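C-ALPHA CELLS:
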Amino acid sequence: QVQLVESGGGLVQSGGSLRLSCAASRTILSNYHMAWYRQAPGKQRELVARIDRGGSINYADSVKGRFTISRDNAKNTVYLQMNSLKPEDTAVYYCNLVISFPPVNAWGQGTQVTVSS
C-alpha cells in the first residue's frame, strides 16, 4: 500500500501563485503515473495534470501555460506549480497515484485552494 500526503494549498489573490506537493510513502519501481485532480463545489472531479514514469505530461486545457507538474524522484514527490491563478481555479486539489503492477490506485487527502478576485 502507498500513502500520499499533500501540502501547499491556501488562499491567494487572483494572479498569484501556489505550489502543491504530493509525497508518496515509498519509491515506486513499476510503471505508474501520478496526477493532480480538482473538484469544485457542485462539480465533478476533473484531471488537472498528469505525469508518467517516462516523463510524459498532460494538462487540462484550462491550465495549460499556467500550471506545471514536475517530480523529484529522490523524494518520491510530485509538485504542481500554479501561476496566474484565477477564481475559477478554486477547488479541492487531490493527488492520485496509479501503479500498474501490483495494481494500486491511491488518493491523497485533498488540499483546498481558494483564489479570491
